[in-house]
Amino acid sequence: MKFRTRAVAALAAGAAVATVTGAVAAPADAARSGLAGRVDRATAQATARGAHVQIAFLDRVTRQYVDNGAVAHTGAETASVVKVFIADDLLYRQSRKQLTLSRDENARLGLMLRSSDDAAATYFWDRYGRSSLVDHVVARYRLADTRPPSDGEWWDTRTSAADLVGYYDKLMGGQGGVFGSARQTILTNLRASTSTGTDGYNQRFGVPHALPRVPVKGVKQGWMIAHSGDWVHNSTAIVDPDGRYAIAVLTTESASAGDEHTRQTIDDVVHTLFPRGYVQDDTPFAIPAIPGLPTVQGLINAGTNVVAHGAPN
């Protein structure tokens, strides 16, 4: 991602458990343990380092959803994470014969997803609709906090951690209209994310750095220096072969702290969330959804959280 500049609104870290489609979480004022407690600790640690952080997590099987409060529903710059939205809309339109990508364009799309190629993103942005690419994804996936860029530059698209895990959930479930080979194109390329972007920047921060014991993870990263002078580092992923877990961690921190400091911040956040190097399941057992009964089943989590179980709406 090229180092662009743009103003970033200050984000206040929250401590509530929120919900996404089809998910239920513990009361906001409950004492939090397990993953929720680790989210709170990670938020406090990032704040102590001078960073603003959004955290959202969804277990697509149990429907356990955890975030760090209202801040996780606040618009922030996507940087290169928007490239997933660009690819999604192009592949959706191609699957409905609204356009046909050439062999060269398909190669560019893969490079854009795997290696975060800026030139490919700019090419697709200018050729296929600019901000309307984001508008289409927002409408199809019903994203509440995502907006096209006010300045028309793709990297300044705004989204939230909550929207990103919701997007990945609906991508895997097909609710956004992307199925079969179109969806597989996105997943295959995200799972083949390269160590460095085409601009030479090391993409191994956040999720890929802190989850070395997870063999299959589809990752889309974003990084840039905003107009305010803040570093933006975003790490998002759909994790496990079946895409069970969706994770989004978005950070902003003064560029005066230095690149290494800001990268360490997001690495530490994800490590605090998952200290064993893989995604721990906080639920000892789940009662499967039963046809004819309500989709929200009891799920006991060591007496701490009650989680919804069943298909998303």
TrEMBL record:
Gene3D superfamilies: DD-peptidase/beta-lactamase superfamily. Keywords: Signal. SUPFAM superfamilies: beta-lactamase/transpeptidase-like. GO terms for molecular function: beta-lactamase activity. One of its GO terms (biological process) is beta-lactam antibiotic catabolic process. Residues 1-25 form the signal peptide. InterPro entries: Beta-lactam/transpept-like, Beta-lactam_class-A. This is Beta-lactamase class A. It comes from Williamsia sterculiae.
